[in-house]
Amino acid sequence: MNTLNTISPLDGRYANSVNDLSVYFSEMALMQYRLKVEVEYLIALGNEKSIKDLPAFPKDEQTRLRKIYQNFNLTGAEKIKEIEATINHDVKAVEYYIQSKVKKALHPWIHFALTSEDVNNLSYTLMWRDGLKQVYLSTLQSVNKELKKLARKYKNASMLALTHGQPATPTTFGKELAVFCARLGRQIDQIKSHSFLGKFGGATGTWSAHMAAYPKTNWTRFAERFIKSLGLTPNLITTQIEPHDSAAESYHQVVRVNSILTDLCRDMWAYISRGILGQKKVAGEVGSSTMPHKINPIQFENAEGNMGIANALLNHLAVKLPISRMQRDLTDSTTLRNQGVALGHSYLALKNIKKGLSRITINKVTMANELDNHWEVLAEAVQTILRKSGKQDAYEQLKTLTRGQSINAVSMAEFVAGLKISEDDKQTLLSLSPESYVGIAPKLVDLI
Fold first, then answer.
1. Which CA distances in Å does 198 have to 55, 118, 129, 329, 331?
2. In 3D, which of 345, 356, 355, 357 has the Cα closest to residue 136?
3. Which of 8, 288, 389, 436 is catalytic?
4. Per-residue pLDDT reduced to its tens digit, 2-55
5. pTM for the whole thing?
6. Out of 164, 193, 289, 293, which one is annotated catalytic?
7. Which of 57, 149, 197, 279 is the most exposed place for a label (fewest CB within 10 A)?
8. 193-197 long-range contacts, Cβ below 8 Å, gap at least 24?
C-alpha cells in the first residue's frame, strides 16, 4: 500500500520511523507468533511421555516443524488470509495452514484440546514483550544516555529556577536533566525486570478436554513447562482468558515513562521559549511558512503529542483488558490489536526527543542575565542565616525587603551589611550571587 493512502499516520507519514516495530505488531507478525505457539505445542505434546499416541519428534523433524514459523513470509501470510476469508476465524486459519505443511497423521494433534485464547494470550504477550524489550527499551535507554551526557556537560551551568512560574532558588541545567535521568532509570529497571504471565488451560481454564483425553497426564505441570519454555510466567488459575493483569502493569510502566518524558518536553519547550536554550540550525530547514527567523521546538512538541495519544490508548488497554464478563467476552480481542499502535506512538516520541536533545545548545549570556536580574532569590539564604543566628523575625525581614520588589547586587549588599550577625556569616552572604547560589547541584549530577 502506498503510504499516502494509509489511515494511520504510523503506517503513513511516520512509517519509516516506526518500521522496526512492524515485525512484532503487524498482522503478519501476529500470525507468526501464533504459528510459533502452535508448532512448539505440537512438539511439546510429542515430548510428553504420558501421551503414547503421539511419539516424540526426532531432532530433524523438530527442525523442519520450526521452519514453518521461522521461515514464514508474506506468501504464507496471504495464504492464511485466504483461509480466513472462507472460514471467518483467524486462529483456525493458522491451524489449517499448519495442516497444509505437515502429514495428515499429525492433523488431529494441531491445536489439540486448545481454545483460541490459549494461543492468542501467549502470542499477544510475546509480541508486546519482544517489541518492548527488543526495540522500545533500547531506544529509551539511548534517550536516557543522551540526557546523562547533557547533564554532565552542563552540571555547572547555573540557571534561574522557576517555581509556580516565579523566580526561585537557582539550580544548574545539568542538575535539572539529572532529575529526569533518575526518574527514567527507575522505570527502565522495572521494564527490564517485569514478569509476563501466560495461560494454557483450555476453554474455561479447567483443562477439561485435556483430562477427558488423557486423565493421567499432569496437565498443570505440562502447561507450566510449556509456558516457561516461551519465556513467560505460568498463570494456572484463570478463566478462558489470561486476565491481562501483568500486561496492564507493563502498559502502565510505559505510561509512566511517557508522563516523565512529557514533563521533560514541556520544560525544554519553556527553556527554549525563555531563551536560555537554543537550537542548532539545520541547513535547508524551514521553521515557519511566513516567519523565516524561527527555529521551532518541533521535536519536543511532536513527542508530547504522540505520548498523549499513546497514554490514552495504554490507559484504556490497562483499564479495559482485566475486565471480562463471566468466563470471557470478546472485547479484549479487538482491543489488544492496538497495543502495537500505542507502543508505536511511544517509540516515535522517543525518536523525536532524541533528535530534539541533539540540537540543544545553552545560551550562557541569557542565563547569566536572568540570574543577575533576580538577586531577590538570595533572600532564602539571608533569612536562613538569620534564623541560624536566632533572629525570630528573619522571614518577615526578608519578606518586607524582597516580596514583589526589584533587588540588585547593591541593594542586597546594603541590606546584608546592616545585619547584626557574625562577620563570618556576613562575609558568606556577601560572597553569594544568584549564579553561585546553587548548593550541591553539580555534585548531584554525579549520582546518576
1. 26, 8, 12, 18, 19
2. 345
3. 288
4. 778 888 999 999 999 999 999 999 999 999 999 999 999 999 999 999 999 999
5. 0.93
6. 164
7. 149
8. 194/246, 194/249, 194/250, 194/253, 195/233, 195/246, 196/125, 196/128, 196/129, 196/232, 196/233, 196/246, 196/247, 196/250, 197/125, 197/232, 197/233, 197/234, 197/235, 197/242, 197/245, 197/246, 197/247
Beta-sheet pairing, 233-234 with 197-198 = parallel
Sign of CA dihedral 91, 93, 97, 102: positive
One-letter amino acid at 424 equals D
Q: How far apart are the first and last CA of the chain?
A: 46
164 is catalytic: yes
* Site of grid cell 546523562: 148
Give the confidence band of 284 by pLDDT, cuts at 50, 70, 90: low
Helix (H, G, I), strand (E, B) or coil at 162: strand
CA distance 405 to 83: 78
AA letter at 133: K
Helix (H) or strand (E) holding 336: helix 331-336
